[in-house]
Amino acid sequence: MGNSTSKQPKGKEGALPRSDTMTSTRSVRSFRSRRSLSKDSSQHLNDAGSFKPSQSFDNRSRKSSFRNDIKPTITPIMGASTDRLSGEFGSLSVGDDYNLQLPPSMIQMEPRQPILKQQDITNGVSNTSPEQHSGFNNTGLSSYTSSPSSPINTPHLTVTQGSSTSLTALSHSNNNNSSGANTPKSSHSNINSPANSDSVSTMSTSVPKTTLMTSRGVVINIEDIIQRLLDAGYSGKRTKNICLKTSEISVICSKARELFLSQPPLLELSPPVKIVGDIHGQFGDLIRMFTKCGFPPASNYLFLGDYVDRGKQSLETILLLLCYKIKYPENFFLLRGNHECANVTKAYGFYDECKRRANLKTWKMFVDTFNTLPITAVIASKIFCVHGGLSPMLNSMDDIKRIQRPTDVPEFGLLNDLLWSDPADTSNEWVDNERGVSYCFNKIAINKFLNKFQFDLVVRAHMVVEDGYEFFNNRSLVTVFSAPNYCGEFDNWGAVMSVSDELLCSFELLDPLDSVALKQVMKKGKTERRNATLQSQGPNSSVSNGASSIT
């Protein structure tokens, strides 16, 4: 069967061959969503409804935005007992009574144990220590071929070491003999460095902070940048320019590329972990999600891609995620989506945002970073995670491990399918996708895939669903979508899938909010964040000009 990329979309403008609009059915908007659209944004979002929603999105009766009938679903995996679900914040580090008054997501945390399977890379061969991760079976998932990286003009990075940290440094086993002069594979060997006194910080002073320095003399503090990005998000204002300098963005992208290439294209993770679907530049909703589910390192995270395009704050969204990746490299993971691609970002907004709010050099730096992102993840050898779906060319997990990075997304083939394919209720296992790219696969293809690789569940994103998550094929595949009130066009909820130590799956939901309601939530969150800082510091904190100054 020929790949459907040979199809060219119809239109006077000659749209790009890789398009995720095509002939998809448009969802009916609710009256509330209609009213929430402003006149200046309606033209910008005139094609937002042409996303491919789930087939049942339009057909079933729509529920009210204020419905209370949706409750988190707990789904057992591997036949695990449903009476054992670990506490959401069972590993909280509460140092004093002040923390007991804080919202759960703002309680001070120390970094969790790494969930990435440790690997030693020697001559392209991965050797795993079984005593470190006994939860993985011998199914061939423990090795991969290291991909040679092409030159990216990355400035040399160093991590300056501090002496006042109270945590044991965590690093990859192949860096145990490093002197610290070069950048380690893991930046858990972070330092304490002074934060900007004007920014509000909710992190404990015992949590290490990372300072990155390039050979060109640019020094940045990751914790400070995270706080600046959060401050921008809580302000509820969309500024003309990004709050970071181009030099700072360059260092962040360089370090992120280094980290992505140091980890395999197929990540092997241990639970617990929270799985997040498409974000699409909805920065305020990303902060809402962290507030509900826990800011890193309160929870381990796996994002399934599509961080940019469509939304109005793609720059803040991808920068915050990259900063968390740098700060917690073995507990925070980002997979590649179909929108993490140069051609797609040119068509759906990120290119224009970079040109308008920063410069084209910034866009090129992000594209270079996108080309190094990992492709898939496997949790406890039982849950397969990917942005799009399956591929008829996937014969072995080694096929994914052999994908060389950096790489653009090809017009067809394995990588294209993993990022673009969709499940569908069709009679044939593989049919051309109505998006004009890749395939649709049916229940038979899913069952064959699960049986061949001994997986129990496929978790993917790539498709807007009304309730934020939707099961398919007797709960053997689930779509997770995490951008509520998508583009102001869909009245959908957002969802985050939580996988417990026992491999029980539950869902935390974000209700759809229009721009006015979202600003109110951000304002309330800003106040809570300031109070959280004051409470965590006790009587030794003071307030100046509406911000918390830590003494």
Automatic annotation (TrEMBL):
Q: Where is the composition biased (Low complexity)?
A: 142-151, 162-182
Q: What is the uppermost EC class here? A: hydrolase
Q: Which cofactor does it need?
A: Mn(2+)
Q: Which parts of the sequence belong to the Serine/threonine specific protein phosphatases domain?
A: 335-340
**A Pfam family annotated for this UniProt entry:** STPPase_N
InterPro entries (UniProt xref): Calcineurin-like_PHP, Metallo-depent_PP-like, PP1_catalytic_subunit, PPPtase_PPZ/Ppq1, Ser/Thr-sp_prot-phosphatase, STPPase_N
Chain intervals for the UniProt region annotation (Disordered):
1-83, 122-207, 528-551
UniProt keyword terms in alphabetical order: Cytoplasm, Hydrolase, Lipoprotein, Manganese, Metal-binding, Myristate, Protein phosphatase
Where in the cell is the protein located? Cytoplasm
SMART domains reported in the protein's UniProt record: PP2Ac
Chief localisation class: cytoplasm
GO biological process annotations for this chain's record? intracellular sodium ion homeostasis
The catalytic activity of this protein is classed by the Enzyme Commission as 3.1.3.16
GO molecular function terms here? Answer: metal ion binding; protein serine/threonine phosphatase activity
Sequence similarity:
Belongs to the PPP phosphatase family. PP-Z subfamily.
Name-wise, this protein is Serine/threonine-protein phosphatase
